[in-house]
């Protein structure tokens, strides 16, 4: 019970985000209308993805400092959940864009950034699968993970601010300015939707990690 | 430190001079791919020209850089391991690949201009951008070649790993190079993007120097 408090918190936050997000009042805006509620589900995917990929890189760095296969398993598991979040983010974004921008994909710089991120993590898994030696796979995978993540940061955080975008923010402004949001929506977005989905991602990752630990029991000596 | 880098660099250059087939191989690759392009679309308009130019640079870079780690056999790597540090080794490789890529880019620029027409308004500005671009490309792909060398299928893996990583830089380059094609930019926007590219180059170099030692020990 003591150790699973954050899982209970995660469920509570997500229920609040789901019910509040679908039922509570939102500002009426032309074009956006009720689709504005998607912000509770689409945007937290990106926060979640960044958090999970950050965890993945953290474990990759730990692996390089102290080669322990468990760190490698953690890095790969967090990366796979991060990629799942990325796919969900792209899909929710494409559905939303279909109704507001008129088509699911319009080569917006942030869409390109998201696609780059997915391609990078797909390459990470291809790279891992192409190396059969377990220690080597862990080490090379960790190096690529760190390198790719660092190269991804400018693509996601700097370049979008230099180009025109259909997304709010951009052109010199932060991507998501907390002050821009309606007060009612802020009450759901920041305290519930974002942390709730991040916690859910971590929860899924820990389950994958436990599963892989059992799978590779004879390699880990634990 | 510097002595080792210079020696390793010299060794790479000497090897290149002695076994010229690799150098001429890449050169032929440059020439024939641009010739094929010329046959396909004689004189494209400037946007197409620009796009094709950078895509060709990308493929040249993959080909020119991939071999730099492929040619090092296991025994030779062991020898380098004994006489020099990982950092010196990767710095020498980065410098050497940058040099080769600069050469290839400038050659392909001349060929592009000769065969595919000349939409360039400001030739020297574009040449400068090409230099910046080829440095960026070669740095990123040197690091990726080092990673791919540890896995078996070299070239294909390099493309899979490299293309997503290079897209942001390539987009920036295509954007900047429009200056050479006569597009007017907001004051300061061009300089900002050039500085961003230089910053990215520095980032890649730092990452390579930090991360390569972990790849190197087997």
Walk me through what this model shows.
The complex is a heterodimer of chains A (222) and B (218). Chain A is built from seven helices and no strands. Chain A has 222 residues and is mainly alpha-helical. Chain A has one domain. In chain A, α2 crosses α6 (183-215) and α3 packs antiparallel against α4 (109-130). Chain B has 218 residues and is mostly helical. Chain B contains eight helices and no strands. In chain B, α3 packs parallel to α6 and α6 packs parallel to α8 (189-216). In chain B, 40% of the residues are buried.
In brief:
The complex is a heterodimer of chains A (222) and B (218). Chain A has 222 residues and is mainly α.
Number of β-strand runs of chain B:
0
The strand count of chain A comes to 0
Note the run of SSEs of chain B as H and E: HHHHHHHH
What class do helices, strands and sheet pairing of chain B give?
Answer: mainly alpha
Which strand-content bin applies to the residues of chain A?
Answer: under 5%
Computed over alpha carbons, the radius of gyration of chain B is 18 Å
The overall number of domains of chain A is 1
**What would the average pLDDT of chain A be, to the nearest integer?**
88
* Principal-axes shape call of chain B: globular
**Through-space gap between termini of chain A:** 24 Å
Shape of chain A: globular
Biggest interface:
A-B, 30 and 31 residues
Distance between the termini of chain B: 22 Å
**Helices and strands of chain A: which structural class?**
mainly alpha
What is the oligomeric state here? heterodimer
Radius of gyration of chain A using CA atoms only: 19 Å
State the helix count of chain B: 8
Sequence stretches where pLDDT stays below 50 over 5 or more residues of chain A: none
Helix and strand sequence of chain A: HHHHHHH
Number of domains of chain B: 1
């Amino acid at each position: 019970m003591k150790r699973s408090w954050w899982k209970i918190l995660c469920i509570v936050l997500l229920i609040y985000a789901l019910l509040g997000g679908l039922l509570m009042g939102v500002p009426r805006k032309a074009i956006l209308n009720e689709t504005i509620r998607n912000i509770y589900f689409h945007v937290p995917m990106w926060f979640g993805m960044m958090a999970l990929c950050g965890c993945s890189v953290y474990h990759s760095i730990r692996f390089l400092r102290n080669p322990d296969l468990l760190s490698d398993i953690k890095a790969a598991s967090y990366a796979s959940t991060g990629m799942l979040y990325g796919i969900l983010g792209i899909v929710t974004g494409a559905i939303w864009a279909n109704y507001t921008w008129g088509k699911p994909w319009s080569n917006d710089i942030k869409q390109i950034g998201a696609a780059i991120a997915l391609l990078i993590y797909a390459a990470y898994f291809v790279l891992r699968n192409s190396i059969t030696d377990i220690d080597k796979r862990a080490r090379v995978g960790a190096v690529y993970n760190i390198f790719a993540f660092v190269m991804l940061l400018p693509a996601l955080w700097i370049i979008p601010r230099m180009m025109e975008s259909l997304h709010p923010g951009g052109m010199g402004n932060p991507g998501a300015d907390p002050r821009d949001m309606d007060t009612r929506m802020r009450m759901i977005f920041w305290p519930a939707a974002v942390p709730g989905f991040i916690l859910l991602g971590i929860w899924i990752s820990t389950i994958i990690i436990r599963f892989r630990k059992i799978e590779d029991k004879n390699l880990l000596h634990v | 430190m510097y002595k080792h880098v210079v020696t390793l660099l010299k060794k790479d250059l000497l090897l290149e001079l002695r076994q010229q087939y690799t150098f001429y191989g890449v050169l032929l690759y440059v020439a024939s791919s641009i010739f094929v392009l010329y046959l396909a679309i004689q004189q494209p308009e400037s946007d197409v020209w620009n796009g094709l130019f950078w895509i060709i640079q990308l493929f040249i870079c993959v080909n020119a850089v991939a071999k730099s780690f492929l040619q090092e056999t296991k025994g030779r790597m062991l020898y380098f391991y004994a006489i020099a540090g990982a950092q010196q080794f990767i710095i020498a490789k980065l410098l050497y690949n940058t040099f080769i890529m600069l050469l290839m880019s400038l050659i392909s620029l001349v060929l592009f201009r000769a065969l595919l027409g000349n939409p360039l308004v400001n030739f020297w500005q574009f040449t400068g951008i090409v230099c910046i671009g080829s440095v960026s490309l070669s740095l990123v792909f040197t690091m990726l070649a080092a990673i791919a060398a540890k896995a078996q299928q070299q070239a294909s893996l390099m493309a899979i790993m490299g293309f997503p990583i290079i897209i942001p830089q390539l987009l920036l380059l295509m954007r900047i190079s429009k200056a050479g094609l006569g597009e007017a930019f907001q004051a300061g926007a061009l300089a900002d993007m050039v500085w961003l590219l230089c910053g990215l180059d520095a980032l890649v170099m730092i990452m390579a120097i930090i991360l390569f030692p972990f790849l190197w020990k087997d």
